[in-house]
């Protein structure tokens, strides 16, 4: 079974530009999460989708970040316009609502560098 | 606000030298404490979930334990391939699913 995949693995953009990150969860997983790790800090929660609905977006830093999950399959996270402090590694995770075990399965991350 | 503190930040062991990593947490109601392993350039890989004080889980050379305030990850006779960053995370009993992570312990096991 394929794990969580993320694209691209690395993105370098200039301040003010737009970047879109993509996450494909494990097939059949209803829950999809976005997290971010900035340099030297802990991994922090951004938001949680249940299918196509946003269940919890309490971690989204500001309105420059837009997450979507149309159709309840893959998700995109757009940063527009990007700022220097947006640099970091963005992780996606998924799990299934029906599973008795709540662990979240993480993708390899997208490293975003804003210059 | 939930807090997770891991110590030490970094740990260097000789192969075969057992030790423990600590994760202290503060939550209003715990609905799971999770241990993950992360290798460079990869995402966190799930190891264990613990739910209540006194619970223990084992996997190969790793054993995780839980009290009301902290969790320990015991590593017995580690091998170089155990070198990684070990992350602790908690899920609060709020109905939401988000994980709150600590900053991790970087473990290096030398042959």
Rg of chain A, alpha carbons = 13 Å
**Can you count the helices of chain A?**
0
In helices, the fraction of residues of chain A equals under 10%
Report the sheet with the most strands of chain B, covering strand number, pairing sense and barrel closure: 6 strands, mixed
CATH superfamily of chain B: Immunoglobulins
**What's the order of the H and E elements of chain B?**
EEEEEEEEEEE
Distance between the termini of chain B: 41 Å
Order of helices and strands of chain A: EEEEEEEEEEE
CATH architecture of chain A: Sandwich
Strand % of chain A is over 45%
Give a quick rundown of the structure:
The complex is a heterodimer of chains A (115) and B (111). Chain A is an all-beta fold and 115 residues long.
Overview of this protein structure:
- The complex is a heterodimer of chains A (115) and B (111).
- Helix content of chain A is 0%, strand content 49%.
- By secondary structure, chain A is mainly β.
- Chain A has a single domain, classed as Immunoglobulin-like (Sandwich).
- In chain A, a hairpin with a 2-residue loop joins strand 5 (43-50) and strand 6 (53-56).
- Chain A starts with a strand and ends with a strand.
- Chain B is built from no helices and 11 strands.
- In chain B, a hairpin with a 3-residue loop joins strand 7 and strand 8.
- The radius of gyration of chain B is 13 Å and the shape is globular.
- With 111 residues, chain B is mainly β.
- In chain B, the strands form 2 sheets. In chain B, strands 2, 4, 5, 9, 10 and 11 form a 6-stranded mixed beta sheet that branches. A 5-stranded antiparallel beta sheet of chain B has the order 1-3-8-7-6, with no helix packed on it.
- Chain B has a single domain (3-110), classed as Immunoglobulin-like (Sandwich).
- The chains are: A mainly beta (115), B mainly beta (111).
- The A-B interface holds A 4, 31, 33, 35, 41-45, 48, 55-56, 58-59, 91, 93, 95, 101-109 and B 4, 32, 34, 36, 41-46, 49, 87, 89, 91, 96-104.
